[in-house]
Amino acid sequence: MAAKKKTQIIRFLKSEYRIGDKVPSSAIYECSECENITAFRQGEYFLPCEEDHGDDDQHWFRTNQFVHFVSRNLNTEFEKIETLGLRTADVIAEVSGTVGFVIFHIIWFGLWIWMNAGQSLFGISNFDPYPFGLLTMIVSLEAIFLSTFILISQNRSSQKSELRAELDYQTNLKTEKDVAEILSILHELREEGKLIEQETSEVLEDANIIFEAPKLRRTPKSLHHKRAKEIIKDAGIDIIKPPKSKKKGSV
């Protein structure tokens, strides 16, 4: 009862958050119903506890254990520093690599050549006669701008790749450090266990206390046979003994 009151007092002092609230800080949070602990990152939204099913009154308490996350969402980070020009370059580079872009140019070039070969469309014809100097200039300018936008988009993609590689390195480095710290703690615990065992043995020797292993007593064979007969009798099993064979030479 005292432990329960103590738990309630500690929870009362902690910050309480409902499901769907925004996580204020990266830390370890405790479920109000099943006391399950879960790590949430700052900026996320609290989700229902996996161990607690169907409880609408479930909420989270923040503990005193804070967590530092190395992993980041690079797409969100790039969105914060993106400008209108960079977004435009990405959109143009993305559109220029589609099949629709190719079909648009096929229709455009076909109509241009058809209208300047003596045919009329909406009363327009022969505005750029062969060898189509205006079309050549427009296509050349388009190629220059397209190549520029594609290079800008590729540079941003390479920057993202470099940042991802750096982030992976930082994450792996932190993981290796954590594993090294855990192995060091386990090694210390092992050494402390050996030291405690050695000190305990010395104390027992000083007190002239010797623990002897208990001797195992063997049960007589007759008791085994008797117990087996009782089990077979309780189970209702009839044992038919084979007839004794006659000795050789008997009439």
Description:
The protein is α+β, with helices and mostly antiparallel strands and 251 residues long. Among the domains are: 8-66, no CATH class; 74-187. The chain contains six helices and four strands. The protein has a four-stranded antiparallel sheet, with no helix packed on it. Strand 2 and strand 3 form a beta hairpin. The protein is elongated, with a radius of gyration of 42 Å. The chain starts with a helix and ends in a 17-residue tail after the last helix. Residues 1-12 have low confidence and may be disordered.
Main sheet strand line-up: 1-4-2-3
Q: Helical proportion?
A: 40-55%
Unreliably modeled segments? 1-12
**Measured distance between first and last alpha carbons:** 88 Å
Rg, please? 42 Å
SSE order, one letter for each helix or strand: HEEEEHHHHH
What fraction strand? Answer: 5-15%
Note the overall shape: elongated
Helical region count? 6
- What kind of sheet is the major sheet? 4 strands, antiparallel
**Residue-averaged pLDDT:** 74
> How many β-strand runs?
4
Helix/sheet category: alpha+beta
Summarize the structure.
This protein has helices at residues 2-13, 74-81, 84-95, 99-115, 133-206, 221-234, and strands at 16-18, 27-31, 37-40, 59-66. With 251 residues, it is of the alpha+beta class.
Explain the layout of strands and helices.
Layout: H1 2-13, E1 16-18, E2 27-31, E3 37-40, E4 59-66, H2 74-81, H3 84-95, H4 99-115, H5 133-206, H6 221-234
Antiparallel strand pairs: 1-4, 2-3, 2-4
